[in-house]
Design brief:
Layout: H1 2-14, E1 34-37, E2 40-42, E3 49-51, E4 56-60, H2 61-67, E5 82-84, E6 87-91, H3 92-99, E7 101-106, E8 111-116, E9 136-141, H4 158-175, E10 179-185, H5 215-225, E11 229-234, E12 238-240, H6 253-256, E13 261-264, E14 267-270, H7 275-291, E15 296-299, H8 313-319, H9 326-348, E16 353-356, H10 380-383, H11 388-393, E17 399-400, H12 415-426, E18 432-437, H13 453-462, E19 468-473, H14 476-480, H15 486-495
Parallel strand pairs: 1-8, 9-10, 9-19, 10-11, 11-15, 15-16, 16-17, 17-18, 18-19
Antiparallel strand pairs: 1-2, 3-4, 4-6, 5-6, 7-8, 12-14, 13-14
Helix pairs in contact: 4-5, 7-9
Length: 496
């Protein structure tokens, strides 16, 4: 309360000074610059814009002051201001210097994030809830397409890649996170020296080219140095991001075993119906388990593709020894893979956690009475042949991390209803439940993502269930970009 009175006093005092005449410079187009104050988007009839030549960002002062609960329509400055449509606009730096706000300007996303020092995004969570230090608080770090790390500008630059990763860890840890899930296999490749698969092109721009160091070893050491967990994330069955094989290394699976690979949706997929192909992937994962001090093995939701025609008729004819339908046969192939991989991991290193992050909807209630109260167009069981229920009930995995990438107000797949369903599903199984959250949707037009409070509300909801042991956010870059002030919101929540 004292904070808001302080801002009212500042704005009122500034009203006593004459307004310096505005300049006549023409401004650049607004380009849809968005303003966010304390996690909520500010709406203004005159949006922010950038002044040419001086490259100064101008913002409407009254809209911001009213957002802070202050009174007054105009502000005097020691620098030029602009007057547009009856609105007084001031340089963005003034907001930070005179109103005591933290200012973050994301030029790529064209978002201005303003945070007051008194911003507390939520009430304290329930006892033993989401902010507990025992909870896993992780982020996915995508390397495919160089999404999160490393940058394309770091190709072949060892020190730059190391610095980028360390800086990324520092930022994530500062928010309160204590685990990372790093993609070490994007598409039949490796971010470590392997005897089985080629070096990933995300390190040098060329598949098979040695980057000159062991990125995985460095990442593990840096992560553990900070007291954080390192989970090695594998995309198991994707062989290549397109159907072109001419740029693949000689030891790539699509070159050595083209009969294992199916072309679908302009990608190459390793056929899960071929036992030798499944074993090859298990061997790849176990190479990492045996050589590195990882905390966990993590698989994403890429099993059978959820769309397109997957031509596995020959494999179905050759390996369907039980006379199953094709749908059941495909699910059995993935079941065998999950069971055998889990057994291999635990036999080698019992302390290494094995977990999978499936699509957030197992089955709709309309298809299966035991499914969730959802109307999803894609489901893990029917679209991806991922029989997650069996993995959980049989305890083939140590944790499940469903990607519940929808808000509390998205009716076809409502966040809270899905958490209810998954919490019930793991009850009594000994399998931990982590929830996958979608900060990448913050600020989008989809229902419920217009405030960072959505994520905080989700974390609070998770505290209803002892079964929920933590959260994972997709992805690291979408946290670092700080959409709608999610950095400050998460930091405050995890510090309580």
């Amino acid at each position: 309360m004292a904070f808001r009175k302080f801002h009212r006093w500042i704005v009122a005092s500034l009203l006593l000074v004459l307004l310096i005449p505005f300049t006549g410079q023409q401004a650049k187009a607004a380009n849809n610059i968005t303003m966010v104050l304390d996690g909520k988007q500010l709406v203004s009839d005159i949006p922010p814009y950038i002044m040419p030549k001086v490259n100064v960002t101008m913002v409407p002062i009254r809209v911001i002051s009213e957002g802070l609960g202050a009174d007054g329509a105009s502000v005097a400055l020691d620098a030029s201001v602009q007057l547009r449509g009856g609105r007084v606009l001031v340089p963005l730096r003034f907001v930070g210097e005179q109103l005591g706000l933290q200012v973050d300007w994301d030029q790529v996303a064209k978002t201005i994030t303003l945070t007051s020092s008194a911003y507390i995004p939520t009430e304290p969570p329930a006892e033993g809830g989401g902010s507990s230090s025992s909870q896993l608080r992780g982020a996915w770090i995508s390397t495919v397409y160089n999404l999160d790390w490393p940058t394309t500008s770091s190709y072949g630059k060892i020190e730059q890649q190391k610095q980028e990763y360390s800086a990324l860890l520092d930022k994530l840890q500062a928010m309160g996170l204590n685990a990372v899930f790093v993609q070490v296999r994007t598409a039949g490749d490796a971010l470590y020296p392997s005897d089985l698969v080629p070096w990933s092109k995300v390190l040098t721009g060329t598949q098979g080219k040695d980057p000159g160091y062991d990125p995985l070893q460095y990442m593990i050491e840096e992560t553990h140095k900070r007291g954080m967990q390192f989970h090695a994330w594998f995309n198991p069955f994707r062989a290549n991001l397109d159907t072109t094989t001419s740029k693949l290394a000689a030891n790539h699976v699509a070159v050595q075993h083209p009969d294992w690979v199916v072309s679908v949706n302009n990608q190459l997929i390793i056929n899960p119906g071929i036992p030798d192909a499944r074993q090859h992937i298990i061997d790849v994962v176990m190479e990492v388990v045996s050589k590195y001090d990882i905390d966990g093995v993590h698989l994403d939701d890429y099993f059978y593709p959820s769309s397109g025609t997957f031509n596995d008729d020959a494999a179905f004819k050759a390996y369907n020894t039980q006379g199953l339908s094709k749908a059941d046969w495909r699910r059995d192939n993935i079941n065998q893979f999950v069971q055998q991989l889990g057994q291999s991991i635990h036999a080698s290193k019992p302390a290494v956690q094995f977990g999978i992050s499936p699509f957030g909807v197992w089955r709709n209630q309309s298809t299966d009475p035991t499914g969730s109260d959802t109307k999803a167009g894609v489901t893990a069981y029917d679209s991806m042949s991922a029989d997650v229920r069996t993995w959980v009930k049989q305890h083939w995995i140590d944790y499940v991390a469903p990607q519940i990438y929808w808000s509390m107000s998205f009716k076809n797949a409502q966040y809270d209803k899905l958490v209810d369903w998954w919490a019930q599903e793991v009850q009594g199984t000994g399998v931990d439940l982590y929830i996958g959250h979608a900060p990448y949707k913050l600020g989008t037009a989809e229902a419920g993502w217009q405030s960072a409070q959505e994520i905080i509300n989700q974390l609070q909801y998770n505290t209803k269930y002892d079964a929920v042991k933590g959260s994972i956010f997709y992805s690291a870059k979408d946290l670092i970009k700080n959409p709608l002030g999610i950095v400050q919101a998460l930091t405050a929540y995890y510090q309580q």
